[in-house]
Amino acid sequence: MATFSYPQQNPHADSISTTFSPGFVIDGLIPDLEITSADAIHFHVHSERLLAVSNNAFGGLLHRPVYALAVPQPATVLNVTLNIIYGMSCLPNPPSLESTEAALDALIKYGITLTQLAKPSYPLYELIRSYAPYYPIEAYAVAAHHKLEELAAAISAHLLAYDLSRISDELTIKMGPLYFSRLANLHRSRMTALRNIVLQPPATHPVTPLCNLDSQREVSRAWAFANAELVWNARPNISTYALESTFTNAAASVQCPDCRMMLHNRIEEVKYQWTAVKTTI
């Protein structure tokens, strides 16, 4: 397993990467290659490390031994690119989603296969997934665009409340028809499942001196009313708490303890069945 060493940095050496400095040691080896970004920041790396993950000699820049080279990416993008190559997390100082997207393009240009670096728990996977709570549709489009299946699936869980009619043409094109269709199908399948789950009203109980069949039909009518309202207004991300609240409030006037027990049991069934419905593409 690779080991890293980070020496103390000169605070005035603004043109040298803090992480990828001349003293960046990996497995006891010091860097043998200096890469200069478009904004003149210097990154010191190991040529063998770059060649090991690249299928085109790092975009043809390392076809022959060199000690220095310049690339068109700015430092923010190059830093993400190199962190991913070295398997180091960017989360302590997270870059913008735009910088991460640019880094993905750079990795592809330099012959690095994204699917090998975007497996669950890998730094690239965790970096893109970290955008999901804040930029879910944008992060999903990035994962879909690069066909990062496991990432797209994980991020899709954050899109259950998203109004798909708001997706821009640009994002639709980026994610492609397949991943857009899968997201739309996820929303539709969850709504279909919800309608099927809540369709059946609570079971009746044996007639008692205090509650006959006519009285029990009131519970079924209240359930049907709540059902119609729920299906009309619900989103694919509706919570079990919202389901429970809707049906409990609809039958709030029910006094029969047996009816209330039947209602409680049916609500618990609905909650259990809803939690079992698939939440990802």
Q: Short description, anyone?
A:
The chain has helices spanning 47-53, 75-85, 97-109, 114-117, 123-129, 136-145, 149-156, 169-199, 213-233, 240-250, 257-275; strands at 4-5, 25-26, 33-36, 42-45, 68-70. It is built from eleven helices and five strands.
Structural overview:
This protein is mostly helical. It is 51% helix and 5% strand. It has eleven helices and five strands; from the N terminus they run ββββαβαααααααααα. It has helices at residues 47-53, 75-85, 97-109, 114-117, 123-129, 136-145, 149-156, 169-199, 213-233, 240-250, 257-275; strands at 4-5, 25-26, 33-36, 42-45, 68-70. A hairpin with a 5-residue loop joins strand 3 and strand 4 (42-45). The two termini are 35 Å apart.
Q: How many strands?
A: 5
Low-pLDDT residue spans: 5-13
Mean pLDDT: 93
Main sheet makeup: 3 strands, mixed
Helical/strand content category: mainly alpha
Approximately what portion of the residues adopt beta-strand conformation?
5-15%
List the strand order in the largest sheet. Answer: 4-3-5
**End-to-end distance:** 35 Å
